[in-house]
Amino acid sequence: MGLGHSFYISIISYAGINIIFALGLNVIIGSIGQNYLGWGAFAGVGAYITAYLMKVHEISFWASLPLSIAGGGIFGLLLGLSSLRVRDDFLAVLSIGVVFIFQVLMIYLPWFGGPTGMDYIPRPILFGAEIDEVGVAVLILSFVIMITLICFKINRSWMGLAWECVRLDEGTAKIMGIDVGRYKLLAFFVAGSFSGLGGALYSTFFRHICPEDFSFMQSLGIFAMVVAGGMGTIPGPIAGAIIFTLFPEIFRFIQDYRNLVYGASLLLVIMYAPGGLFGKGSFLRKGRYAALP
Amino acid sequence: MLEIADLRVSYGKISALKGVSLRVEERQVLTLIGANGAGKTTIVRSIMGLQTLGGGVIRFLGEDISNMKPSKRAARGIAIVPEGRQLFSDFSVKENLLIGAFFRRDRGRVGRDLDEICEIFPVLKQRQKQVARTLSGGEGQMLAIGRALMSNPKLILLDEPSMGLMPAVVNVIFDVIGRLRDQGKTIFLVEQNAGKALEVSQMAALLELGEIVLWGDSRQVARDPKIKECYLGG
Q: Residue A210 is part of a domain; what is its CATH number?
């Protein structure tokens, strides 16, 4: 496959999916401020649900999609529940563990194709015909816009304000009467749902998934997009996703050193721009909470 | 308005509250005085729902709230000005005030109330966009009180407002509390500064080692010889 029109469509699609993943993870890391590295599990649940339903049971994409979103959301809730019982630092460790457990499950459970995963996953069908690459790209971009708008809306809502209070100072939030547990669960549910959505799109776009796609290293990649891009903002993860998707493709020679690049960029960001490249020092911008007086 | 009956709280084997009963009537300022460690903040935390009770009942407006989550209590009109202010230091003055309105149903009115609070505390209006951590002690205390007022509360829990403040600033804060009293607000004031507290309140209770040992009209309590000796410096 050469550098034709098809290549650019693929890049745009891939970047779009990563934006959705990054915005989802950002809800946990940036909005409510929990140390969480387990993207792979949420996205993987979404991806495998859609892949399995579409390929094995010939259920349409449009019916599988809500189930992927719900699956991601429920998984999110489960992780959220455990986050309530576990201290900050241990949540990071727990989340890494979850990713590995998910990977192992997908390798050893009989129905999901084992280590080689599932392939020949169909494309969505619209008006009786399978959508082509361009169609999928349009679909993905539509969801990117939708998720971005939802993020904006949440940011400016009272729920977003509550999340921020929890992120800044959990103790004070609790004293003020804010139900910290409930808002953590909500954050995990939203993050899981977004990732589940991304996972479904991933399945139908790439048409092949395997457990390795949702490994810890991949999770670290999404994590890097959020943190290096700018956690807690909306442009941040979007920029991070675009940069980290485009770079390996445009600079093909660093493909093999991708993990080195991820690690190095994280290090550089932490050293020189702790809020992320497009991040912010704090939520003290004008125009925040415009829905509030 | 607020009724506490036989409240018991223990931290492990240590009994912090050994059967405390008190009432706050509507439009009344009740002050709870007592030394460090007497259990005053434990009572405030219990009222807010941040403390597991070992026994006893808390009733607010006739409703048993002993097992209610803090968010539900806040929604019912209990606002807290916590010990040590507990502001969101990275938020601006305005944002801290907004948090106060979090549990209100009538969110449309919040904008108007924000302006009103800024009228009551002109210094807050000046520093609206300033980050809370840059405020002085007295300004921070006013912000904490303002934040509580933003919820349009039925009951205000004021925990040690004078703590860490210069005497001149303490006077200012108690002026504010006096004004709130004159406006008819219901306040449960917990204070180590017995003198100021008894001045500004109508009813008083003395807490010693987890038990109420004195109770009555603030003027009378102030005249009590024990109080004079131990808490008002003779």
A: 1.10.3470
- Residues of chain B positioned with their CB less than 8 A from the CB of A174: 50, 70
CB A54 within 8 A of CB A261: no
Q: What is the pLDDT of residue B37?
A: 76
CATH of the domain at B171: 3.40.50.300
Range in A5-9, A22-26, A45-49, B224-228 the model is least confident about: B224-228
| Confidence bin at A3 (pLDDT 50/70/90) | low
Inside any domain, residue A143 = yes
User: Phi first, then psi: what are they for B78, rounded to 5°?
Assistant: -100, 125
Q: Which of B69, B82, B112 has its CB closest to that of A179?
A: B69
Q: Give the torsion sign (CA, B132, B138, B139, B143).
A: positive
Is there a contact between B102 and A289 if contact means CB atoms under 8 Å apart? Answer: no
Q: In the numeric block, which tokens belong to residue A208? A: 């092949």
Question: How many other CB atoms sit within 10 Å of the CB of residue B18?
Answer: 17
Q: Which residue of B has its CA nearest to A170?
A: B88
Percentage of the residues of chain A whose pLDDT score is greater than 70 = 90
Give the model's pLDDT for residue B160: 93
| Cβ separation B98–A175 shorter than 8 A | no
At B168, which amino acid appears?
Answer: A
Q: Is residue A61 part of a domain?
A: yes
Tell me the nearest-neighbour CA distance from A89 into chain B, angstroms.
Answer: 22
Residue A278 lies in a domain: no
Side chain identity at B161, as an amino acid letter? P
ipTM (interface predicted TM): 0.86
The DSSP output letter for A288 is: T
Number of Cβ within 10 Å of residue A290's Cβ equals 10
B233: pLDDT strictly greater than 80: no
Residue B149 belongs to domain spanning: 2-230
| Each residue's pLDDT tens digit, B55-107 | 899 999 989 999 999 999 999 999 999 998 899 998 999 989 988 888 887 77
Q: If DSSP codes are grouped into helix, strand and coil, which group holds residue B121? A: coil
A236 within some domain: yes
The boundaries of the domain holding residue A127 are 5-272
| A 140-179 residues inside an 8 A Cβ radius of B | 158, 161-162, 165, 168-169, 171-172, 174-179
Q: Which of A170-179, A224-233, B65-74, B224-233 has the lowest mean pLDDT?
A: B224-233
Q: What is the pLDDT of residues A53-77, one digit of tens each?
A: 998 898 999 999 999 999 999 999 9
Q: How far apart are CA A107 and CA B160, in angstroms?
A: 59
CA of B211 to nearest chain A CA: how many angstroms apart? 24
Tally the domains of chain B. Answer: 1
C-alpha separations of A219 from A22, A95, A111, A196, B196 in Å: 10, 10, 23, 14, 58
Would the CB atoms of A179 and B70 count as touching at under 8 Å? yes
Could you give the number of structural domains in chain A? 1
Closest to A158 measured CA to CA, from B87, B101, B88, B109 = B101
